[in-house]
Write the structure tokens for this entry.
Amino acid sequence: EVKLVESGGGLIQPGRSLRLSCEASGFTFDDYAMHWVRQRPGKGLEWVSGISWNGGTIAYAGSVRGRFTISRDNAKNSLYLQMNSLTFEDTALYFCVKGSELVVATTADYWGQGTQVTVSS
Amino acid sequence: QSVLTQPPSVSAAPGQKVTISCSGSSSNIGNNFVSWYQQVPGTAPKLLIYENNKRPSGIPDRFSASKSGTSATLGITGLQTTDAAVYWCGTWDSSLSVGVFGGGTTVTVL
């Protein structure tokens, strides 16, 4: 059974940094790209970032490029999202999502339950 | 404003059929696989359809989907009260090099 467990969310002040983690199990982690997708309160799904199986290809949404950094540790079956210079607009539920192939340019299949990030002064 | 366009809501009585459209462009739907997700309020999205029209194991055949050109469609037949949820289409946009989703469609079972 595919399992994705996010952690690291919380209440943070604007301008500060936060690092999200996602621990994966139930599949061969380094066979698949991984993504972060967020959902602002009462809003739609927004793709945030994706990383290929070996980290060789990385992509970001324009709204986070230059502030967020995605990474993975295949030895630990883990995905990360380093979020810097957080703004109120980054307040959302962040989902760790498994890609359907090795490459980042794919759709998502399995989703974690999400970790809440709230940016507030 | 979402890159993919979905109707905000659809509704039908139990046992009836609903269809949800998802409109995009050649850089996304036109040249990439489409997936569909179901999100019951308070839970994470769940994969319903992948590679345009394939169902993961455990998804009933009441759910079907198709793609034509730059549009995709999800159909739900024999509507059940448990189908009340928000449905999202998603794909990759090759020009923008980003993942894209529709704005979501709320299915109401009357």
Summary: The mean pLDDT of chain B is 96.
